[in-house]
Amino acid sequence: MLPESNIKNIVIVGGGTAGWMTAAAVSRLLNHPEIKINLIESDSIGTVGVGEATIPHLRFFNQLLGLPEDDFVKKTNATFKLGIEFINWDKLGKSYIHPFGPYGVPMGGLRFHHYWLRQKQMGSGIPVDEYNLQIMAAKAGKFHRPQNIKKSPLSTIDYAFHFDATLYARYMREFSEKNGVKRTEGKIVKTLQNPENGFIESVQLESGQIVKGDLFFDCSGFRGLLIEQALKTGYNDWSNYLPCNSAVAQASEKIGDPIPYTRATAKDAGWQWRIPLQSRTGNGHVYCNDYISDDQALKTLHDGMDSTPIGTHKQLRFKTGIRKKTWNKNVISLGLAAGFLEPLESTSIHLIQTAIARLMTNFPDKHFNEADTNYYNERTLLEYEQVRDFLILHYKATERDDTPFWNYCRNMEIPKTLKDRMGIYLENARLYRHDNELFGDASWFAVMHGQNMHPQRFHPNANIMPDAELDKRMSEIHKTWAACLDTLPTHQEYIDQHCKADI
């Protein structure tokens, strides 16, 4: 029997990806007959459903739940993702890929890119992309999961997924309900708070039903039904750094074999995504409506699609930023209710996942220790700020001056944290990973190099290796990476063999 102080009644407000991911994780990790988990959602309230691309960390979430990966891929019409191709971000007509895996191998205690920069200075014409297996495989339309081959690049393959967000939420729901989560259909019309401390005690549904809880998860999307409408938490607005505030999304017919990467194409006032699934293609246009009308944004989306639209488009409004407290009193906000960072690097689902993990480390009892909640909020804010800075880099590091939007981005003030990081790289190519942040040095290098940031120097210790030895090592790495690429099947062949969806 659990002590009286333990949380026993958990209420999740809202379904969608955030709500059902939360339900799945909580029901898996808090599996006890005295703990009741109730998820409230209404079929009449649509979900955003824009989160079809992920980063590799989702694999660990699925593993935590014990989900067979092939089954997950089949049930969500998923494909595999090796990185993101950015088109027209630095200048029109130029593109690069931000891969998930490393470039080359470290040597002499230094990251590979320092040696590549040295060799380039010596006159080598080999592009750095040819030292990254994920980039090479993406361009060739090939894929394979990592293979257990010691000291082989084939063992370092890192990957994520493209999937149907609606199907993923359904998949999470099935898992959750099997684990005892109760779903309650209905709209919340009233929130009842404790008059002394302001904690949420219950919510009232349109039907009159009262749902009580000890702990509430707000997964109600942008409106923040509990965290904002009830608790008036406030919001840190970052739209001066990330000015896009609108999106229009629409599916289109599948055309050809799916590519194993996401495509993000910069437009006049934002950017357009293309996400290949087994059954269809996901498309969307993220933009700032200060620079383009909604009608023109939709036309831009349709003009940039390579297949026939399916169904109707979905219009979204948002404001980049984060709640001043993502955990306030006995309410923890997740997903869009917590904050929004545009889907440029496919981080939305990851931020849900890390919030859940952080919560489990700091899971409360009924005392709701303030030091724990403060720590949670501080770490969540730091994570959002780190991801924010990485996203800003894509807009700031541009030479585009062809539209007012890009002129604003190129000239805008940026956070000191990012300014310092860019300055250090431009000086001597050094990159640092702070506080185990999401994006490591390979990611920062990919975007900085891809967007034409050229360091004046490289790490001085890269000069220690003799020229002949450096040439020999770089040649061996290049040949090995090319040989590994030759062994990989096509992306479609791999899907057909392992996890083809029943479409």
Architecture overview:
There is one protein chain. This protein has three domains: 9-52 and 164-238 and 321-368, FAD/NAD(P)-binding domain, CATH 3.50.50.60; 99-161 and 390-491, no CATH class; 246-317. Helix content is 34%, strand content 20%. It has helices spanning 16-29, 58-65, 69-75, 112-121, 133-140, 165-178, 294-303, 348-361, 370-396, 404-411, 416-428, 441-450, 467-486, 491-498; strands at 9-13, 36-41, 79-81, 83-87, 95-99, 160-162, 182-185, 188-193, 200-205, 210-212, 215-218, 235-237, 246-253, 262-267, 270-276, 280-287, 309-317, 321-323, 327-328, 331-333, 339-340. The strands form five sheets. Strands 5-4-14-15-16-13-17 form a seven-stranded mixed beta sheet.
- Considering the protein shown, what is the CATH homologous superfamily of the largest domain? FAD/NAD(P)-binding domain
Q: Report how far the terminal alpha carbons are from each other.
A: 47 Å
Task: From the 3D structure, determine the CATH topology of the largest domain.
Answer: FAD/NAD(P)-binding domain
Strand content range: 15-25%
Main sheet: which strands, in order across?
5-4-14-15-16-13-17
Largest sheet: 7 strands, mixed
Low-confidence stretches: none
CATH class of the largest domain: Alpha Beta
Round the mean pLDDT to the nearest integer and report it.
95
What is the alpha-carbon Rg in Å? 24 Å
Mass-distribution shape: globular
Quaternary: single chain
Helix content: 25-40%
User: How many domain modules?
Assistant: 3
